[in-house]
Every structure is written in structure tokens, then in C-alpha cells.
Design brief:
The complex is a heterodimer of chains A (391) and B (176). With 391 residues, chain A is mainly α. Helices cover 62% and strands 1% of the residues of chain A. The radius of gyration of chain A is 22 Å and the shape is globular. With 176 residues, chain B is of the alpha+beta class. Chain B folds into two domains: 11-42; 56-175, Alpha-Beta Plaits (2-Layer Sandwich), CATH 3.30.70.3270. Chain B is 24% helix and 14% strand. Chain B has helices at 12-15, 18-37, 80-84, 125-129, 155-162, and strands spanning 63-65, 90-96, 108-116, 135-137, 152-153. In chain B, the strands form two sheets. Chain B has a three-stranded antiparallel sheet with strand order 2-3-5. A two-stranded antiparallel sheet of chain B has the order 1-4. The mean pLDDT of chain B is 87. Classes of the chains: A mainly alpha (391), B alpha+beta (176).
């Protein structure tokens, strides 16, 4: 009984720490980064003013602080706005939709290993064997938020946005799931922490060569892993893995409604799409839900392809995780994970401000004609290579 | 009449999208890095940096009145600017110059000269129409005030802003 209570308490601490200390601030600063990066790509500067408002307290100058306080100002603005509900909407579903958009991405975080360990406790909220299946199952629930918003708004543009969103998600869900099957064939597990463990030993799945684990302390699981510094078959395996990385990343763009595929939103044609009728905090939930989904998508990509929390040249575990250095190592691993996520988020933003939106038929064609086929063929290629590796 | 739109023949790299996408990503990254490193500078950070030094000579800022090197207010209250002013921002109350004054031949001077800067459209017609070279649009562009009254520039303020302008035609000097 005591053991169970302790487990519940630790899980609760991990959940709250992950969501409120890391993810939610990260969401708001992703919005800030989106604005700054988009501005710089367009030769502007972006929000660089909002800092500590010392003038409010009678001082001469504010501290601009690169505008880093902008997200707080945005949050205050959104909270103080009138929460207007149009008369023609279906009230129940109208209020339910924003929560449906935000919650799934938070739920998907449960299985993602965001660090190795702290005080011997694995840094994943739920260490379950269905790992990736949970991510796909829950993140595809996100479409309900958009569809419900589109339908309950009882207005043409949101409706079109909702329809587009559902067909888009269905199309890309397939290639999303199919493209990562090679990883599970190679790693032999769906458990995300196990996949990261595999990568710390055998090298990140995205890298073609791996010099003895690139680590000062060659890691081993149960003392039985032997690695060659260069393996031709490993290099051969890299080709389908790279293809699956590309397919997975592009599908993730479609899944999170990011720009080359942001048809549900499509400001220029659908005046904002599914959230046209929303205001104040309900709109903010959609907005933040989109960015949270982006972060979860990046986290999944990092976990599957970029070795999760693994840092090259650093030991993956210490003998005693309770010492000072053990804790420091755990913190470094957490930082490394979110640093990789941040880099991918930058890539998301970078792509958004480079590519124009796809046409609807192009989007469908890409999904159904190319990605599913490529992902399927990819599975077979890996299946042919693998027996030679496991002689 | 129907006609066939010529479709350009695309080669493989164009059909595959990806090369074009990557070159596009390169372009945006270059812009991003140029601005980030400060190599390229487009934006002027307004309250800290100002236009002042960069304004061209013909810039039309706030209209002001000027005095000349003899300390004479050049305006003779002919009211041409008041009449031409499209938004009717100018109000002049002419007065008579007393006989004992050195400049009595000028006859008139503005007792009151008000320009309502809320109405002013900075067109410069007042400067253009002035036969006495008395009113000039200077380079002040940030005209602010907390009340409507504050936004009406009276004669004192106009001379303060205009200052002394030398090198103009002094046609009244011969007629003292």
C-alpha cells in the first residue's frame, strides 16, 4: 500500500514538473520564438521591447530584456479579453472543443522519456510497453478538438476547416504510423525508454556511422553488447531509416497542422478556419494546443531518431545515481533532450516561414500516393536487411 | 477561343520538390542569420534612434514662424496662409504696427497666430503661398500633447520652434 502511494506521488510530481515547469513555459516561449524567428526571416526584428516595466514603479527606464517577457504580456491580454460566445453555436461542444484540442498533446507526453534518471527514478511519467502506440492513439484524438470546433461553430469557414482537418489527419496518420515501423523492427520494442537505451548503445538511428557509442565509457546492457566502430550493414540500414525519418517528419508537419499543410487554419482562404468564432482564452487554448502538439511531435522525433536524452561522449549511467554527479548527469540529460526538441522546433518554425501552403489535392496526393507507399516499401527494405544483421 | 496553356517541362529535380525546398530554406536561413548577427540592418529602433539626422532638406514637418537677423517677425499678417490652408488649421488676428516703430512701413503684424496641429496636414501650402518667407515647415515631426489645447501652437510657440532664419529677401529694409 505504502509502495503504491509512493509510486502515485512520484508520478504526480513528475507529471506536474513536466507539464507546468517545462512544457507550458516552453509552449509560450515557442510562440515567442515563432514571432522572433519569423520576423528575422522577413528582415524585421519582432517583439523585442516587453521587459521588466520599471517605469510603472517610478524608475526612468524599462529593462527591455530582448522582449522575453512578451509571452506573459500575451497571456495577460488573452485572459483579460472578453470571452464572447456567439448566439448561433452549439454551446456544449463549442466549449468542449478547445479542451479537446489542448488535452491530447499533454496526454501524449506521458510516455516520452525526457531524461535518463534523477535519484535513480526513470524520467518518464509512464514507462509502458505500448509507448509509441499511446502517442499515436492520443495525438490523433487532437483532431476531435478541431472537428468539434468546426462543426459546433455553425458557420461556414470553421466547418470547412473542420472537414479539411479530419481528412488530412486520417490521411497522414497512416504514413505516420507506417514510417516508424522499421524502428520497432530494429529495436524490437515499442517501449520508448527502451528505444532510447538502444540508441545510446547502437548509435542514434539518424546517424549513418557510430564510433563505439561515441562515449568515453563504452556502455553496455548486461555486459553483453559488443560494437564495431564501422558496420557496413548499419550503414545500409541507415538509408531506410533516413527515408522513414523524412516521411515521419513531414507527416508530423501535417499532423500538427503546421504551415506547408495548415489547411484547417488557412488564414488567407478560411479566415482562420476552425477557430474563426473563438475569442479570448478559448482561442488561446487552440493556439497553445497547436504549439503543444508541435512540442510533442518534436519530442517523439527526438526520441525515435535523435537518441532522446543521450549526449555523445557522456556516460549514460553512473554506478551510484544518488551522488552529486549522478544528479548532475540526470539534469544534463534532461537539458539535452529539451535542447534537441528546441532545435527541431526551430526547424518547424523555419519551414513554416519558407514554404507556401499546399493545395488541398496536392496534400491528399502526397499523403495517399507517395508517403504510404514509401513507408510500406521501407518496411520491406528493413525486413530484407535485418536478417543479415542478426546472423 | 480556347487555347492550350503551355506547361513547362519539369526535370526530375524540379518534380521532386525537395531540391527547391532546400534552396528556399537556405534563402530564409541566410536572411535570418544576417539579421541575427547584425550584418544587415533594416529596422530603425525608433525612440532610441531617430530620423532627425537622416531627414532630407525638403522634409515637411511642423509649420513654424521665423524671425530674421534684424529681430523682425517676418509675418505681415496678410492671411494668405490662413485662406489657403486646406484643413483651416491656421487662425490669424492681424494688428497694426504703431507709428513710432522702426518697421511701421510694414503696417501689419499678427497679434495672434495659431496653428491647430490636430488639423494640420503638413501639406506645405502655407510655406508656398507666403509672400514674405515668414512661415516654414521645419523638421519637427513628433508633435504630441495630452490635451487638444496643447496641440494648438500659439504665436510664442511657433517663433520658438522657427527661430531665426538668415539669408532671406529683406524687402522692407529699404522702406524704413
Amino acid at each position: 500500500m505504502m509502495h503504491l502511494l509512493l509510486f502515485a506521488l512520484i508520478s504526480l510530481i513528475k507529471t506536474i514538473g513536466l507539464i507546468f515547469v517545462i512544457i507550458l513555459p516552453m509552449v509560450s516561449y515557442t510562440v515567442y520564438a515563432e514571432r522572433r524567428v519569423s520576423a528575422m526571416i522577413q528582415d524585421r526584428l519582432g517583439p523585442n521591447r516587453v521587459g521588466i516595466p520599471l517605469t510603472l514603479f517610478g524608475f526612468q527606464k524599462d529593462i527591455p530584456f530582448f522582449g522575453l517577457v512578451q509571452p506573459i504580456a500575451d497571456a495577460v491580454k488573452l485572459l483579460l479579453k472578453e470571452d464572447f460566445t456567439p448566439n448561433h453555436v452549439n454551446k456544449f461542444y463549442y466549449c468542449l472543443a478547445p479542451a479537446c484540442a489542448m488535452a491530447p498533446s499533454m496526454m501524449a507526453l506521458a510516455v516520452i522519456p525526457f531524461g535518463s534518471q534523477l535519484w535513480g527514478e526513470p524520467m518518464v511519467v509512464a514507462n509502458v510497453n505500448i509507448g509509441v502506440l499511446w502517442v499515436f492513439a492520443v495525438s490523433s484524438l487532437g483532431v476531435y478538438g478541431i472537428v468539434l470546433a468546426g462543426w459546433s461553430s455553425n458557420s461556414k469557414y470553421p466547418f470547412l476547416g473542420g472537414i479539411r482537418s479530419s481528412s488530412q489527419m486520417i490521411s497522414y496518420e497512416l504514413s505516420l504510423a507506417l514510417s516508424v515501423i522499421p524502428i520497432f523492427m530494429i529495436c524490437g520494442t515499442l517501449n520508448l525508454p527502451e528505444i532510447v537505451r538502444y540508441q545510446t548503445v547502437h548509435g542514434w538511428l539518424i546517424s549513418p556511422i557510430w564510433l563505439n557509442g561515441i562515449s568515453l565509457f563504452p556502455p553496455s546492457i548486461n555486459g553483453q553488447e559488443i560494437m564495431r566502430s564501422f558496420d557496413f550493414l548499419k550503414f545500409l540500414l541507415w538509408i531506410p531509416l533516413f527515408i522513414s525519418f523524412i516521411v515521419f517528419t513531414i507527416s508530423m508537419f501535417a499532423e500538427t497542422n503546421r504551415l506547408p499543410f495548415d489547411l484547417p487554419e488557412a488564414e488567407t482562404e478560411l479566415v482562420g478556419g476552425y477557430h474563426t468564432e473563438y475569442s479570448s482564452m478559448k482561442f488561446a487554448l487552440f493556439f497553445l494546443g497547436e504549439y503543444a502538439a508541435m512540442i510533442v511531435g518534436s519530442a517523439v522525433i527526438v526520441t525515435l531518431f535523435f537518441g532522446g536524452w543521450h549526449v555523445p561522449f557522456l556516460p549514460t549511467t553512473l554506478v551510484d545515481p544518488y551522488t552529486f554527479w549522478g544528479v548532475i548527469l540526470g539534469l544534463i540529460h534532461i537539458a539535452a533532450f529539451f535542447f534537441k526538441v528546441a532545435l527541431l522546433l526551430f526547424f518547424f518554425i523555419w519551414v513554416r516561414w519558407t514554404l507556401p501552403r499546399f493545395r488541398y489535392d496536392q496534400l491528399m496526393r502526397l499523403g495517399w500516393y507517395f508517403f504510404i507507399e514509401i513507408a510500406l516499401v521501407n518496411v520491406f527494405i528493413v525486413a530484407v536487411i535485418l536478417p543479415f544483421m542478426r546472423r | 477561343m480556347p487555347y492550350i496553356v503551355a506547361r513547362p517541362k519539369l526535370n526530375f529535380s524540379e518534380k521532386a520538390y525537395l531540391p527547391a525546398i532546400f534552396s528556399g530554406l537556405g534563402i530564409t536561413l541566410r536572411h535570418f542569420l544576417d539579421i541575427l548577427s547584425g550584418k544587415k540592418k533594416v529596422t530603425m529602433q525608433y525612440p532610441e534612434e531617430k530620423w532627425d539626422a537622416k531627414l532630407p532638406a525638403h522634409y515637411r514637418g511642423a509649420p513654424t514662424l521665423v524671425t530674421d537677423e534684424y529681430g523682425r517677425e517676418r509675418c505681415v499678417a496678410c492671411q494668405l496662409c490662413e485662406f489657403i490652408c486646406p484643413p483651416r488649421a491656421i487662425t490669424i488676428h492681424p494688428g497694426e504696427i504703431p507709428l513710432e516703430n522702426r518697421w511701421r512701413k510694414v503696417e501689419k503684424f499678427p497679434q495672434e497666430f495659431e496653428i491647430d496641429m490636430i488639423r494640420c496636414i503638413y501639406c506645405g501650402l502655407c510655406e508656398e503661398v507666403c509672400p514674405e518667407q515668414a512661415i516654414f515647415l521645419r523638421k519637427d515631426y513628433a508633435i504630441t500633447g495630452l490635451t487638444r489645447k496643447e496641440m494648438v501652437h500659439d504665436k510664442k510657440k511657433l517663433y520658438e520652434m522657427g527661430g531665426v532664419m538668415t539669408g532671406l529677401v529683406n524687402k522692407w529694409n529699404d522702406k524704413k
